[in-house]
């Protein structure tokens, strides 16, 4: 073997030994890193889920409408002589609003009364004639035809009296219609027709519009899907029905402030609108100061019922998958992280109402979830509900219960 070959062999041996040393050092470094990572488990903040008694409500948009509305129209023809109310004021039931010229109706009434008196005056003589003819008929002193004519005249006189009684009543009604009165107490707007205007009975244009504003209606709509969900929850016991509580409704005005008086649910429509898939709810609200006016937009908070075992978690404890599915990270008894897919019901304040996916006692990560993955080990620190910060060394706490 030549000296050149020996040198080549020595160089190759040195290279192999160097590579083996580097591989050994690399394996030792990886092992040390794994041990370091295992020891330094990430710290997360958790809340412990608890079952709570929660009163569930639904906020629905709606508009106000008058409790009663009447377009004031004349019921006889004539000239408006007087307008007897102040525009934009409150009027009482029976209060006179307009006076229509009553002279022609007074004449008609007096004429009917006179005709009635005349018909009544003729009746006694005709009755006496019939009585005499009846006596004479038995002696054959008068013919049967004369008696029949007298009896017919008596019946005709009686019918004439009844006719003129009806005419008097009709004339009295027309005369009374010249006095246009308020059918109920309420707030009256402007007068569309003024004094001296000729009006006709039951004309299309009203004289004025009267509205009762206390109480006032609030009409809201709710989807039929929400109705089915509510009935299903009541049937399976997830909601308990409190009839008196469900009738109470809170009203919020257009500027976001809450109306001081509480309304009551009057009825729910039994027909679903096929174009919108919703049905109507009518709420009666006291309105003594006329703060609510017809046509205003409001929001009504309607009570659905009470969930006796509701699960609530802070909204920061829920994240979304790339598909948009809500998930929560849960720490089990061994401090191992698990991913739970959730079904959310609704938001209540800063919390989510959980339909399924969590149970009482689960510890949900609310801070530090970006540093964990499913199956990893973490150090769980409970959240201080008062300050919103983690409590080092304190036991896991339960969400504060909501008062119904």
Task: Calculate the terminal CA-CA distance, rounded to whole Å.
Answer: 99 Å
Report the portion of residues in β strands: 25-35%
Uncertain segments: 33-37, 392-404
Instruction: State Rg.
Output: 45 Å
What would you say this structure looks like, in words?
The protein folds into 4 domains: 43-54 and 309-382, conserved putative lor/sdh protein from methanococcus maripaludis s2 fold, CATH 2.40.420; 57-65 and 214-306, Efflux pump adaptor protein, beta barrel domain (Elongation Factor Tu (Ef-tu), domain 3); 74-101 and 178-205, RNA polymerase II/Efflux pump adaptor protein, barrel-sandwich hybrid domain (OB fold (Dihydrolipoamide Acetyltransferase, E2P), Beta Barrel), CATH 2.40.50; 103-177, Helix Hairpins (Orthogonal Bundle), CATH 1.10.287. 31% of the residues lie in helices and 34% in strands. The protein contains 5 helices and 20 strands. The chain has helices at residues 3-39, 103-138, 144-177, 224-235, 243-247; strands at residues 43-48, 51-72, 78-83, 90-91, 96-100, 179-181, 186-188, 198-199, 208-223, 248-252, 263-268, 278-285, 297-314, 319-320, 326-331, 337-341, 343-348, 351-356, 363-367, 379-382. Strands 1, 14, 15, 16, 19 and 20 form a 6-stranded mixed sheet that branches. Helix 2 runs antiparallel to helix 3. The protein is elongated.
């Amino acid at each position: 073997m030549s000296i050149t070959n020996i040198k080549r062999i020595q160089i190759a041996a040195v290279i192999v030994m160097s590579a083996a040393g580097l591989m050994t050092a690399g394996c030792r470094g990886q092992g040390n890193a794994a041990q370091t990572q295992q020891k330094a488990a990430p710290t997360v903040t958790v809340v412990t889920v608890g079952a709570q008694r929660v009163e569930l409500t639904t906020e629905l948009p709606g508009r106000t409408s008058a409790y009663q509305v009447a377009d004031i129209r004349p019921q006889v023809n004539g000239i408006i002589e007087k307008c007897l109310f102040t525009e934009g004021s409150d009027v009482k039931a029976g209060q006179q609003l307009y006076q229509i010229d009553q002279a022609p109706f007074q004449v008609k009434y007096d004429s009917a009364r006179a005709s009635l008196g005349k018909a009544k005056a003729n009746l006694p003589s005709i009755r006496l004639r019939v009585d005499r003819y009846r006596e004479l008929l038995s002696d054959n002193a008068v013919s049967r035809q004369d008696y029949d004519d007298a009896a017919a005249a008596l019946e005709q006189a009686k019918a004439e009296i009844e006719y003129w009684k009806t005419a008097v009543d009709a004339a009295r009604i027309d005369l009374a219609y010249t006095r246009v009165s308020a059918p109920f107490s309420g707030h009256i707007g402007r007068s569309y027709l003024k004094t001296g205007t000729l009006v006709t009975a039951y004309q299309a244009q009203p004289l004025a519009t009267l509205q009762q504003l206390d109480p006032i209606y609030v009409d809201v709509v709710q989807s039929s899907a929400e109705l089915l969900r509510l009935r299903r929850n009541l049937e399976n016991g997830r909601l308990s029905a409190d009839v008196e509580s469900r009738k109470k409704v809170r009203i919020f005005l257009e500027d976001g402030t809450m109306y001081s008086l509480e309304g009551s649910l009057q009825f729910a429509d039994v027909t679903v609108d096929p174009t919108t898939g919703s049905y109507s709810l009518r709420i009666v609200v006291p309105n003594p100061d006329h703060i609510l006016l017809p046509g205003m937009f409001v929001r009504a908070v309607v009570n659905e019922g009470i969930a006796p075992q509701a699960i609530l978690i802070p909204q920061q404890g829920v994240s979304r998958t790339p598909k948009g599915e809500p998930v929560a990270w849960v720490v089990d008894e061994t401090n191992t992280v698990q991913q739970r897919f959730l079904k959310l019901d609704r938001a209540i304040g800063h919390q989510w109402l959980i339909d399924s996916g969590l149970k009482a006692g689960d510890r949900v990560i609310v801070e530090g979830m970006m540093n964990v993955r499913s199956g990893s080990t973490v150090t769980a620190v409970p959240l201080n509900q008062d300050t919103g910060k983690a409590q080092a060394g304190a036991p896991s706490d339960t969400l504060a219960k909501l008062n119904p």
